[in-house]
């Protein structure tokens, strides 16, 4: 289950919306690759506040349902969106008959789960033969690149904090192995691209720092975090800031 720490669901929703924007081109690539039809039945595991479900609806996919373990996130989603279905449940034990869906997918989920292999096995079970299991994004914080110094310390501190919360910071690199273990076929894996241009260098993603503050609360003092933020702002103004967290994707077909 996701650790929400001291953030409310609105703050998490803003972060999820930003993550949805990051993976928009990847989703289109994968959907084209698997010839996803607008009428195909789609399950999102770990649907949270409904950010991905809403994007699917906006993209013309109407036969969708989400499931999430956190009741407050599902209630938030239902209050925000009235156009898709979402239920409370555990991805380790999906309450659906075998072979029900054409596609099951998740998005920044497995890093939070105690047994990602069990979640993938369940996603495969509820997807019919010839259907697809998609993991749209899982980060690898242990391979994070921060430049210039001392911003490299920021990534190290965040990774330590995530591990202390029981989160797997290097789940991304494990995706291909997990898919092979699950028995999926026609597996494709990769990493989301990264580009740095002037306008992006000048912009600080407020959701990134909201997450950092939540991750590092109790690990760094507010003054230490403020100094890192000032150094980040200065590096962006100079055009020297590099922040790259390798984010992996994987998809495979159910035999």
TrEMBL record:
Domain (Methyltransferase type) ranges: 43-134
Q: Which InterPro entries match?
A: Methyltransf_11, SAM-dependent_MTases_sf
List, alphabetically, the Gene3D superfamilies matched: Vaccinia Virus protein VP39
Q: Molecular function terms in GO for this entry?
A: S-adenosylmethionine-dependent methyltransferase activity
Pfam families xrefs: Methyltransf_11
The entry's protein name is Methyltransferase type 11 domain-containing protein
Q: Which organism is it from?
A: Candidatus Brevifilum fermentans
Q: Source organism lineage?
A: Bacteria, Bacillati, Chloroflexota, Anaerolineae, Anaerolineales
